[in-house]
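Researcher: Sequence recovery benchmark, item below. Answer with residues only.
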């Protein structure tokens, strides 16, 4: 290659490579607001700075490396963009000394960074965090006035880890190719050898795609609807493999380096593999994200990962990768949707209570998080905002996505997000978390405020319950199957752009996902000679639901009810009666035939149900509930008592449900 061509190639590679990750500014923001957002979030961490220690002293040693490296990235990018200040440059130099010094760096046969000064573990995420900050400081070495010793230390540390046995090919932890590609990319920058990334990225990407399908009893990387298997070598029905919204996106975050690898000479993937990648992107965006920029979240790690803000920030980094890698997209509009979701996500995070928002969302506290975890989330958000600016996202289009869905036929998971609401059905939870069934597992409004529940069980859940006369529950539609059974399709698509008629046992690896206008499902449960069916019709602005309970001639007589949950202290239900009066419902039931509609008002969100079909003697009232681990702020449940079922006439109840904007 001629000398000038090599220079051009290296320049293009370096520019592409600094597009490492991003979490952009609020929707509709001017470009400068990306930088302002990064600076504002970084400034929230100012009380943690210690001149004596030369670093940010966090609330937990397990987050010290991550927080300091993220702020280092922010200050380095600001310096290169001419928006830095002497104070931040001095701090950046101090952080470089700390990150490359003996406090968190370990040499020896297994070199790498620890989470903090008193750590011992060298997990891949700690290497990613440290390298993410140091490589940005290296690129901004002139603007930061880094001494030669500091520059040499960055180069040496990154090179040593990337070449270590733990990270050099063919090393791989599970199917998490992202960590290895990031180390290769950083080494390529500090050594100015772009072909390293082209070669390394191709190797790891092909390895992941070759492992998508199951082998024997091993699950493989992706399920029939392209749900993510966290432990690909284990069986698909194990709890850990039900799915992982956070880690699916962390791994797909390898897309952040795709443009740089292509600029460095990586060939375009083979057509079949590129089609699979694009299908996975379709499934990931439609199935894991909401219009509010939050995860449509289920995870095999259950409470150990669910609604952790620090994991959300890692997961969001995949969206900038998609916004900057058009070759991976099903079509160009998916990139515009990805940027929109990123914008909305950062706006939402900035609006949360407190200088540094809680490390856990929606009051989930089963596995508690430290102050350090909250600080790490804020630092990652600041870093992502800075990287969004540096990636040139202001020049990328952003548009609000249409209504989206994603369906996994084997576990009966249906994720739905529209500009008005988002929800999910998870028929098979594989024992990974306590919620699920063939009814709505959760219901949020378009701003990610809880309209109904985040994951309750009866009585704090949607769905039909059949009881004996003594109150014992014989059947509940909102009880998830704990075992995966490929011979049983737990939730069927009746109408959808993709996926109608697909069975749980399919061996195809396709994405049953994308935009929709009219989406219909049906699920059935049987117990004690009873059969209950839940049918849903989803449109962009409402949900139609219908429940039917039938019993055999030999079954006992039962009474049935359908629940509609609420959220938060002081949640109420206000009925509009047919005579025009408004009535706040209590435990004292009223005839449903006298009710035109009911608005259930939760702490910050609300939704309205309009009865369509009901037994003539149905009655409606409120039932108090207790907090649950997966619904810690459960409010009272609106309960519609349908009466007793008969053999000749099954009970049927139908409503139209619409989610209101925040009050």
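Model:
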């Amino acid at each position: 290659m001629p000398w000038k061509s090599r220079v051009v190639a290296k320049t293009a590679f370096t520019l592409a490579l600094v597009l490492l990750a991003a979490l952009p500014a609020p929707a509709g923001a001017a470009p400068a607001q990306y930088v302002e957002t990064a600076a504002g979030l970084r400034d929230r961490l100012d009380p943690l700075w210690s001149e004596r220690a030369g670093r940010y002293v966090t609330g937990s040693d397990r987050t010290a490396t991550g927080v300091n490296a993220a702020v280092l990235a922010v200050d380095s990018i600001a310096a290169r963009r001419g928006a830095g200040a002497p104070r931040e440059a001095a701090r950046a130099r101090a952080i470089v000394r700390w990150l490359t010094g003996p406090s968190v760096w370990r040499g020896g046969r297994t070199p790498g960074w620890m989470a903090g000064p008193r750590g011992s573990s060298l997990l891949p995420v700690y290497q990613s965090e440290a390298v993410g900050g140091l490589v940005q400081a290296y690129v901004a070495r002139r603007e930061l006035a880094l001494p030669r010793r500091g520059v040499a230390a960055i180069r040496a540390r990154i090179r040593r880890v990337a070449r270590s046995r733990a990270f050099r090919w063919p090393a791989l932890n599970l199917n998490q190719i992202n960590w290895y590609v990031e180390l290769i990319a950083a080494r390529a920058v500090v050594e100015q050898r772009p072909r390293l990334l082209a070669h390394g990225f191709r190797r790891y990407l092909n390895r992941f795609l070759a492992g998508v399908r199951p082998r024997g009893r091993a699950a493989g990387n992706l399920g029939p609807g392209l749900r993510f298997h966290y432990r690909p070598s284990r069986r698909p029905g194990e709890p850990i493999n039900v799915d992982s919204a956070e880690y699916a996106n962390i791994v797909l975050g390898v897309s952040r380096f795709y443009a740089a690898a292509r600029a460095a000479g990586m060939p375009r993937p083979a057509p079949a593999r590129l089609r699979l990648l694009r299908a996975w992107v379709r499934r990931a965006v439609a199935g894991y994200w909401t219009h509010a920029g939050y995860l449509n979240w289920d995870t095999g790690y259950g409470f150990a990962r669910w609604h952790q803000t620090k994991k959300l920030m890692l997961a969001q980094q995949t969206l900038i990768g998609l916004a900057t890698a058009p070759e991976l997209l099903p079509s160009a509009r998916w990139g515009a949707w990805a940027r929109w979701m990123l914008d909305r996500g950062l706006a939402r995070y900035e609006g949360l209570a407190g200088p540094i928002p809680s490390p856990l969302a929606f009051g989930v506290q089963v596995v508690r998080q430290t102050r350090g975890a909250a600080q790490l989330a804020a630092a990652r958000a600041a870093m992502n905002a800075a990287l969004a600016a540096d990636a040139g996202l202001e020049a990328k289009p952003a548009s609000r996505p249409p209504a989206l869905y994603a369906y996994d036929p084997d576990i009966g998971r249906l994720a739905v997000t529209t500009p008005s609401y988002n929800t999910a059905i998870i028929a098979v939870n594989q024992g990974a978390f306590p919620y699920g069934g063939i009814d709505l597992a959760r219901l949020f409004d378009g701003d990610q405020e809880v309209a109904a529940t985040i994951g309750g069980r009866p009585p704090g859940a949607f769905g039909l319950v059949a009881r004996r006369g003594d109150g014992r529950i014989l059947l509940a539609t909102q009880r998830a199957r704990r075992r995966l059974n490929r011979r049983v399709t737990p939730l069927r698509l009746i109408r959808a752009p993709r996926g109608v008629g697909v069975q749980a046992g399919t061996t195809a690896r396709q994405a049953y996902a994308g935009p929709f206008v009219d989406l219909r499902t049906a699920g059935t449960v049987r117990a004690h000679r009873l059969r209950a069916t839940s049918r849903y019709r989803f449109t962009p602005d409402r949900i139609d639901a219908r429940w039917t309970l039938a019993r055999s001639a030999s079954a006992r007589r039962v009474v049935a009810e359908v629940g509609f949950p609420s959220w938060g202290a002081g949640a109420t239900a206000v009925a509009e009666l047919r005579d025009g009066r408004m009535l706040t419902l209590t435990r004292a039931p009223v005839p449903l035939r006298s009710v035109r509609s009911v608005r259930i008002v939760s702490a910050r969100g609300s939704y309205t149900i309009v009865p369509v079909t009901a037994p003539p003697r149905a009655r409606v009232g409120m039932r108090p509930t207790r907090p649950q681990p997966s619904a810690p702020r459960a409010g009272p449940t609106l309960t519609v008592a349908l009466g007793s079922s008969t053999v000749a006439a099954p009970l049927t109840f139908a409503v139209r449900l619409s989610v209101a904007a925040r009050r």
